[in-house]
Amino acid sequence: MLDAVVPLAATSTNARLYDALIIGAGFAGMYQLHSLRDRLGLSAHVLEAGDGVGGTWYWNRYPGARCDSESHSYCYHFSDELVQGWEWSERYPSQPEILRYLNYAADKLDLKRDITFGARVVAARYDEAENLWHVQTEQGGHYAARYLITAVGCLSSANLPKIDGIADFQGKWYHTGEWPHEGVDFTGKRVGVIGTGSTGIQAIPVISAAAKHLTVFQRTANYSIPARNAPLTDDFKKYVRENFAEIRDVMRSTVNGHPWRIADRSVLDVSDEERNEIFEKAWERGGLRLRAEFRDVLTNEEANRIVSDFLKKKISQIVKDPAKAAILSDIDHGFATKRPPIDTGYFETYNRDNVDVVSLRAEAIERITATGVKTSKGEYPLDIIVFATGFDAMTGPLFNLNISGRGDMALRDVWREGPRSYLGLQVVGFPNLFTITGPGSPSVLTNMPVAIEQHVDWITRCIADMRKSGQTRIEAKPDAVDDWMVQVQEVANRTLFTKTLHSWYLGANVPGKPRVFMPYIGGMARYRRICDEVADKGYEGFALTR
Ligand code: NA7
Fold first, then answer.
1. Strand, coil or helix: what is 21?
2. DSSP 244-273
3. Residue 313 CB neighbours (<10 A)
4. For a pocket test of ligand 1, which of 156, 216, 219 has the largest count of ligand atoms closer than 8 A to its C-beta?
5. Distance, CA of 196 to CA of 340 (rounded, Å)
């Protein structure tokens, strides 16, 4: 263990010393702790800002919060015991159920004793002479470790738009990603929701059922597919119990880590009639799987246009008021080139008398006043404003940690023009820092637990190999980063994702953020192969030293 060999300099600062520090106790941090502590026998510790485990599912408690991955795939698969010991109740797990699941996993694995809760990391600095990371928390804690592993999630830094006048608002306002634990009572209230991404689309139907009146402020109209959420049948639960090894194999071999394969047919190869039948069936089945009915939905413009038209037509069929339907179906981007939401009664909600939609393309928000929202065309009196405005995705959570590497180089400065990493795992100048689901890895384009398990397994193997060979420092080489960044952009440019310029995948939702396509879109299975090959070749592209 590191404690035995650490130079005095590190201990003299009263730092609590570990082999590895992990930041964040969500899916990623919990599994990383288990892997390093229980498999490698290292001293590992987690620092977590929240007062409990759960990560994104600890903070995102807004009404209707639910995962878009199917429950039997949205869980740990590394342990047969964990899989067999848990039963999901619905097709898509709700936030409270996922939080219960993560507590179940934490307790089963006895993780909480090695997590400090209520510890928000405010600085992490690499000391080259000591070859140690020093980490400070807002609460005054000082920790040091050889390895620093960020497990802070990709969508955890709330994006609160800078709209003039917010401080003047006399009502209450909330961001969905920082929702109060005691909940919000909308009964009898006039509510405004700003944002119609996955979050807004989940929250709007639930809020509208309680509120006196709901005004939805929509900047970009969005597609949405019905989730068709429902309680799981006993037959399905039995199927999962008996076939989970096979389900796991499918998830590990598919492009995006979901438990289904993409059909090997083109949208353009089938007759109109057959295509329509396929889409209708997929619409009835519900969920993200509609994307997987054809292989070229995200690579061929014409194929994408056909799917997009099908979905726009559905909106016009569901929403009865033609004026509302026109605003909601006026979508300016191809289906799934921004993250596609799935919903429970979203478009139907606009058939309620107490729900209106305002197009911010037609009337921009000018300011928030004491009594509501003022647009270029009018004023909307409100008691509560809900910002469903998303996140400073992928880089935001890392920048919040104020990480500085060799020579006190700040990550924020190194990535000023956009994130640059090797495999999304490491950054030049930041030795022994690993970023789970970091930019440059498949992460947000996948079913997250699959991407997380792959990264954690790779990092664990890497640290184990280093210890075997007596190496104490690993750092990505500049050439390897250059090559990887070219690959990340090349695969992205082969798709339609880079044609939609206002997606958070490109950082476009945060003013001033560089427009760089951040995740690796070459597919989870291919990415896994690349990472394994790198490790098999003695960590090709990394410099390892003693
Ligand atoms: P998203 O998908 O980033 O959606 C945020 C929404 O808020 C989207 O409709 C934005 O419009 C809108 N937005 C953002 N800033 C503003 C301002 N300044 N004014 C008006 N409207 C604004 O975040 P979600 O929380 O819904 O989902 C995040 C991910 O969580 C999701 O993709 C899943 O992976 C799970 P825009 O489209 O940018 O014009």
1. strand
2. HHHHHHHHHHSSSSSSSPPPS--GGGS-HH
3. 11
4. 219
5. 11
219-to-282, 284, 357, 511 alpha-carbon distances in Å = 28, 28, 10, 15
- Give the model confidence (pLDDT) of 310-323 as tens digits: 999 999 999 999 99
Q: Report whether residue 197 contacts ligand 1, using a CB cutoff of 6 Å.
A: yes
359 C-alpha to center of ligand 1: Å?
A: 14
pLDDT of 70-117, one tens digit each?
999 999 999 999 999 999 999 999 999 999 999 999 999 999 999 999
Tally: H helices and E strands in the chain: 17, 20
- 359 pocket-lining for ligand 1 (C-beta < 6 Å): no
Distance between Cα 415 and ligand 1 center (Å)? 23
For the Cβ of 200 lying below 6 angstroms from any atom of ligand 1, the answer is: yes
Q: Is 155 in the pocket of ligand 1 (CB under 6 A)?
A: yes
Give the angle 6-12-15 at the CA atoms, nearest 5°. 75
129-154 as b/e: b if 16+ CB within 10 A: ebbbbbbbbeeebebbbbbbbbbbbb
CA distance 120 to 53: 13
Element containing residue 80 per DSSP (H, E): helix 80-84
Q: Structure pTM?
A: 0.96
